[in-house]
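Sat 14:20. Reprocessing the chain from the morning session after the first attempt stalled halfway. Input below, unchanged.
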Amino acid sequence: MTLNRIATDPDPYKPFLLSQGIQVGDLIFISGQAGYADDGQIVAGGFRAQGEQAFSNLDRALVAGGSSLQSQQRCQSDHFPDGHEQFR
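Finished this time. Tokens:
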């Protein structure tokens, strides 16, 4: 089975020699995404703004792998404290 590296442009993982994700057959595994903008800096605006940006980055990585947030099967995060229902 072939492993394919998933990368977006810009690729914030490139300087660290890491992959944003890996595609194995029909499966896509995306690494943790942060609330960083295209310039690599964390977006201003606090938890909500960074969470929205992280999901935008997640979708961009999924699209680069031939998928999207709409077709995902599982998304795991341990970063959403009670009271942040907008991300559930």
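Strands lie at 3-6, 21-24, 27-30.
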